[in-house]
Amino acid sequence: MRSSGDSPVRSDQRGSIEIPKAVPPHTKPSRRTTLIIVLSSVGALFAALRMFREVVPVGASPIPFLFARVEGGELRDPSGSAVFRVSFNDGGATHSGNHWCWISSYSALSGWRVVLEGYVGPEHAVSGEPLKIDWSTPKVIRMKFRESRYADERRLWKESNW
Fold it and tell me: How do the domains of the chain map onto residue ranges?
């Protein structure tokens, strides 16, 4: 019979019954393992947020943007250095009144970001008439939006630095 020091089992005093050795209690993870888990979680969270911002721009409501958006094309500033994405909220047959419009700019670090938003008429959102944008001030985009969802003539100027 083997001695109890080198055997995976130990025997009692009489040597007739072999009892397995006790399993060591669970040890807590090392600091390195904890650090790897925390950094991986933060990296995964950042990647998921970045992928989400590739689709839904910062400043836009996710539900209308994901489920009732119609692409309106791209705009370029007069110098050609900046490109803006135009999107309209159009619920199809359920839609009434003016259409909400998002004008977004892109950053490689943070994804899309809304720079201007407001109501535009169906002549822009449905018929495809180009938006009238004022580019008179450098690095500022300026446009007239309708005052509300059902307003026809009253318009408000909105501007944003990009």
Answer: 55-161
Cβ atoms of 51 and 44 within 8 Å: the answer is: no
Q: Enumerate long-range contacts of 62-70, CB under 8 Å, 24 or more apart.
A: 64/89, 64/100, 65/89, 65/102, 68/92, 68/95, 70/125
Spatial contact of 87 and 105, defined as CB atoms under 8 Å apart: no
What span, in angstroms and rounded, lies between the C-alpha atoms of 87 and 117?
10
Cα 151 to Cα 71: distance, rounded to the nearest angstrom: 23
Q: What is the pTM of this model?
A: 0.71
Query: In sequence order, what are the beta bridge partners of 75?
Result: 84
Q: Please write the tens of the pLDDT for every residue from 58-107.
A: 999 999 899 989 899 899 988 888 889 999 998 776 778 889 999 999 98
Opening angle at CA 64, ends 62 and 65, nearest 5: 60
